[in-house]
Design brief:
This protein has 248 residues and is mainly beta. It is built from two helices and 14 strands. It has three domains: 83 residues, no CATH class; 63 residues, Type Iii Antifreeze Protein Isoform Hplc 12 (Alpha-Beta Complex), CATH 3.90.1210.10; 53 residues, SH3 type barrels. The strands form four sheets. Strands 3, 4, 5, 6 and 7 form a five-stranded antiparallel sheet that branches. Strands 10-11-12-13-14 form a five-stranded mixed barrel. Strands 1-2 form a two-stranded antiparallel ribbon. Keywords: Bacterial flagellum biogenesis, Periplasm, Signal.
Length: 248
């Protein structure tokens, strides 16, 4: 450690030989000490800070099933102060919502008494069913007509399908082009005024009968259906192509 006695540094003019100021030497020592410990962060230190911020986001936000998360830290000012922290960098943030595209992460080293706020750009993608060919209204969707493609959630906020089986066998209600994401309102797994199978389920007991759908529905939708035998109108869940399940 640097030690300084209370003495004075004399600054003089070489041309005139006159003395202008008497500066306490401890001030000079302080300036040397201060400048030595406020150096700008190195490239490696900045990269470590960015990686810590990105890792925090990836660890605290869950990816959708089959999806992925990409976290990209913003560039930092190379003049920021940082050190080679003797322990693992600590990270925290107040915003961990899936709907946010930017999260600010606090990266800090308590041992060396510094902290830096790092903006992190967040991209969340999920697999959605898309068409592999152009399809016309009224067409029945076959296995060769669809595929799963990764779609960024911020670019597609409407309801789509995450499983091919939810769409295969359904009837299109509109024309679709190659690469279109199939939305729930684009197809009917159960279609209005068409014949369906009604499965009445109670515990392990299941009875099937025929009926007529009174409105369109995709997989998982609740629809109204008329029992063709009793003429009774009931509500059930679409569980397959032309199939409605009613739980008693």
């Amino acid at each position: 450690m640097m030690h300084c006695k209370t003495s004075f540094l004399i600054i003089s003019s070489r041309k005139s030989g006159k003395m202008f100021h008497l500066i306490p030497l401890f001030i000079v020592c302080y300036l040397i000490f201060f400048s030595a410990f406020t150096h700008a962060a190195t490239i490696e230190q900045i990269e470590n800070i960015q990686k810590a911020a990105e890792g925090h986001v990836l660890d605290t936000i869950d990816a959708p099933r089959g999806g992925e998360i990409v976290a990209t830290a913003s560039r930092l000012d190379t003049r920021v102060f940082a050190t080679d922290c003797p322990t693992i960098l600590q990270t925290s943030s107040s915003n961990t919502r899936h709907t946010s595209s930017n999260i600010t992460v606090l990266v800090e080293c308590p041992q060396d008494n510094w902290r830096i706020y790092v903006p992190v750009k967040l991209s969340i993608s999920a697999p959605l069913v898309a068409t592999t060919t152009s399809l016309s209204r009224g067409s029945i969707v076959g296995p060769q007509d669809v595929t799963l493609t990764m779609v960024e959630q911020r670019r597609f906020r409407r309801q789509g399908f995450t499983d091919l089986d939810q769409v295969i066998g359904s009837k299109l209600k509109k024309n679709l082009q190659i690469g279109d994401i199939i939305e729930r309102n684009d197809v009917c797994v159960v279609c209005r005024n068409e014949k369906v199978v009604i499965k009445a389920v109670k515990g392990e007991l299941a009875i099937s009968t025929k009926g007529t759908a009174l409105n369109d529905g995709a997989s998982g939708d609740q629809v109204r259906v008329k029992n063709d035998k009793s003429q009774r109108i009931i509500e059930g869940i679409v569980t397959g192509v032309g199939e409605i399940t009613v739980n008693f």
